[in-house]
Specification:
It is built from 14 helices and 13 strands. By secondary structure, it is of the alpha/beta class. Helix 7 links the parallel strand 4 and strand 5. The longest helix is centred in the last third of the chain and has 38 residues. The structure holds pyridoxal-5'-phosphate.
């Protein structure tokens, strides 16, 4: 498609623009029908319609000024308090709403850096110790805030190796990280054991529950075996949880929580010398979208514990059904023992990326993963009705890949295969940077 390079001299009629946008949207991933297994967390049209109303009501409001918009201040404080209560927090736990999991993680890492500057002055090169499966947002935080990441290995079960992690703690470690669960394989790290190490060393411990924060508490209540991961675990000093994932809120809503008000203070930013006035900002962004804050509040209040339990149970049952279906196909197996409705699968007999391409052709979208090569699935309540057709297409696709020896050299399989096998990761980074230049032309 040709790209416009200037603002139109005269405005284009709104109807025309809306219909153009509608037809562009038809080319996008078809998440509404449950064919996309990532990116969108959908709890049905009725809920989405309600969220849009709540979002629209605060469409123009700006959360940067709680004084101008006490409504947003109340929404935010209540979302934080409700999230804290759900995650085992007491009255000493304080937090902030952010635009998403990445911002929550950036803020937590920045808070630990500031905290360490004050309380660990001998540390000149602060380190973040995290499992290799932790989300890249931690790498981003290190990249932005000049921290060093130290990676601990995971075992065959894809959980952080506690003994190996203990060995990697140094005098420069200011914070350790565990995921509940980690995105790639949906397994929870041994939070209790890891946080005990951090407590003993008197350093921070951040639980990344961006994905599981609004899922695990309900699964626990439903009787699924969930290892402790929240503020009830001694040594856990902060948690991130995304309302815009399994909280089924509008995009742009996450919560970062701290064990104490003192720790949260290290996150805040104040500049009092500006001619424009005394400037105070709790998180990364300046302007904060009122709609996202309002919709998060509306989601928690309208779905309620009962609704979340129902959504969690439905997602979990569907995930189990899909995992069983995959396990029943020769050559495919699930990686590790997933703790919730997120998992990945691989093959010991054929090219899993070629299978991904065959599924693409049938309209399904599955994310590709590496080390080991696998396909990823994030299951929500919206997938209930597609579990069966998915498995039948998967079975058909496996046949297709097995009978087509050229499958690995075609489609995107060749590219993913090469990217996963190249030992020179810097070369892969360079290749991806070139691609980004091209995409964001
Ligand atoms: C999604 C996710 C993040 C990042 O959240 P964004 O909202 O995409 O910025 C961090 N950690 C985990 C485990 C996640 O699943």
């Amino acid at each position: 498609m040709s790209v416009k390079t200037s603002i139109p001299g005269k405005g284009i009629p709104k109807d025309e623009l809306l219909s153009r946008m509608e037809s562009m949207r038809n080319m996008d991933a078809d998440w509404r029908s449950g064919k996309t297994w990532s990116l969108v967390y959908y709890a049905g049209e009725d809920h989405t319609g309600f969220l849009k109303k709540a979002h629209n009501m605060f469409f123009s409001e700006n959360g940067l000024s709680p004084l101008a918009f006490p409504s947003l201040k109340t929404f935010e404080n209540e979302v934080i308090a409700m999230t804290s209560g759900m995650l085992g927090g007491d009255e000493n736990v304080f937090g902030t709403m952010t635009s998403g999991g990445t911002e929550s993680i950036l803020m937590a890492m920045k808070a630990y850096r500031q905290w360490a500057r004050k309380t660990m002055p001998s540390v000149k090169e602060p380190e973040v110790l995290l499992p290799v499966t932790a989300h890249p947002a931690f790498e981003k935080a290190a990249h932005y805030f000049d921290l060093k990441t130290v990676h601990s290995p995971v075992g065959n079960d894809f959980k952080a190796d506690v003994n190996a992690t203990r060995e990697l703690v140094s005098d420069n470690t200011i914070v350790m990280v565990g995921s509940a669960p980690a995105y790639p394989h949906g397994v929870i790290d041994p939070i209790t054991e890891l946080a005990a190490i951090a407590k003993q060393k008197e350093i921070g411990f951040h639980v990344d529950s961006c994905l599981g924060g609004f899922m695990l508490p309900w699964l626990n209540k439903l009787g699924y075996p969930i290892t402790p991961f929240d503020f009830s675990v001694p040594g856990v000093t902060s948690i991130s949880a995304d309302v815009h994932k399994y909280g089924y809120a509008a995009k742009g809503a996450s919560v970062v929580l701290y064990r104490s008000k003192e720790l949260r203070r290290h996150q805040f930013f104040v500049y009092s010398d500006w001619p424009g006035g005394i400037y105070a900002s709790p998180s990364m962004t300046g302007t904060r979208a009122g709609g996202s804050i309002a919709a998060a509040w509306a989601a928690l209040n309208s779905i309620g514990e009962e609704g979340y339990m129902r959504l969690a149970e439905s997602a979990m049952k569907t995930a189990k059904a899909v995992m069983e279906g995959i396990g029943g196909i020769k050559g495919l197996y699930i990686l590790g023992k997933p703790d919730m409705s997120v998992f990945s699968f691989a093959s010991d007999t054929f090219d899993i990326f070629a299978l991904g391409d065959a599924m693409d052709r049938r309209g399904w979208h599955l994310d590709r993963q590496q080390f080991p090569s696998s396909l990823h699935m994030m299951v929500t309540a919206a997938h209930e009705k597609v579990a069966e057709p998915f498995i039948s297409d998967l079975r058909e696709s496996v046949e297709e890949v097995i009978t087509n020896p050229k499958a690995s050299a075609e489609g995107t399989a060749a590219m993913y295969g090469m990217a996963a096998s190249l030992p020179d990761r810097k070369a892969v980074d360079g290749f991806v940077l070139d691609l980004m230049d091209e995409i964001f032309e």
